[in-house]
User: Fold these one by one.
Assistant:
Number 1:
Amino acid sequence: MTFAIICRRLEWKNFEVVVSSSKLINVRNVMNDAKEKLDFRDRVIKTSIGFKYMIVVTSFQCYIYR
C-alpha cells in the first residue's frame, strides 16, 4: 500500500507552494503572480520551504531550490 501527499499548501513570505498531485508541485510568487510547475519523475514524499530555499524529497532523490 502506498500513499501520497496531495493538495498540501505551504507559504513563505511571498511564495505559495501547492502539491497538486503525487508528482506535480505548483509554485507561485504572489507579488507578481509568476507561476512555475515542477514535474517530478518520482512520487513527492516531503516538501518544505523557508529561508530562501525549497526542499523537495521524492522516493529516490532530494531537490534543493533557491
Number 2:
Amino acid sequence: MHKSRIVLGCMALVLTLALLIPLVGCGGGGGTSTTATPTGTTTGATITPTKTPTATKTPTATKTPTSTSSSGNTLADIYGKSGYKGDIKSDMVITSSGAPSETPQQITQTVSIKGWASPNNWKWRMDIPASVAGSAQIMILDYSAGKTYTWYPDQNIACSTSISGSTSNLAQDVNTIVPTYLGTETIDGKLCDVYQYTAEGINTKEWVWKDKSFPIKEEITSSYGTSTLEYKNIVFAPLSDSLFTVPSSVTMQAYPCYPMPSIPSYP
C-alpha cells in the first residue's frame, strides 16, 4: 500500500514533473477552455491530434495539426524560452485513473522550485500530505549537490540518497529529451504549446504556457495507468533557501529511513 501511494506522490516530481516535468502544463485554477475536443479526463483539457478542432474564441490559439514533427529543441530549451530564471511555487493536483483502489484518486501537494530554467542547479521541494502516504513527508531534490532528501517532519527524522542512484534524473532528462510538437491549445485563457515524448517507457504529454515557458499540465501514462498533473495557484517570486534545507535539529538516518515506530503498518 505504501509503495503504491509513494509512486503516485512522486509522479508529481518525475516531472518527467515526471519524470516530471516534469513538468507540465498551463492553467492556474479556474475553468478550462480548449481548442480541441476533450477526451474525457477528469481534470484539465486534452487534445486529439487526429481530429479537426472546432472554432475557438481565442484568435491566437492554433488548430491541432494533422501531422506532428520533432520540436528540434530539448525540454531545457523550451523551458528557457521566456528567459525567466527565478523561483516558482504552486499547488500540484494529481488525478489518477489507474492507481490501485487504496490510493486516493486525486491528491494535492505543494511544489516549490528554486532556479527555474537552470536544470543543473535546480532545487525542488514537494510537501506531501499524510493522506497520501500515511505520514506527512517533505521531499527535497538538490541537483547542484546531487542529493535527494526525504523528511518526515512529524517524526523529526530524515534520510538522503544520491540523485545519480535513481532510475531517472530530471535534470538530465530535460537536457536530452527532444519532444514532438503537437500544436497549441488555450487553457484557462493561457496559450500553450503542446509537446509529447516517451522516456523509460513512460509517455508524457505537456502543456507549456507560452508566456512563462512553464509546463503547468502533464498527462503521464505508464504501467500504473494514466495520471494528470495540473499546476494551480502559480506564484513567480523569490523563495527562501531555507525551504530547500533540512533543519539541523532533524535526525538524519541511513536510507531508507523507515519503518517508523509510530506507523506499525508501514511496510
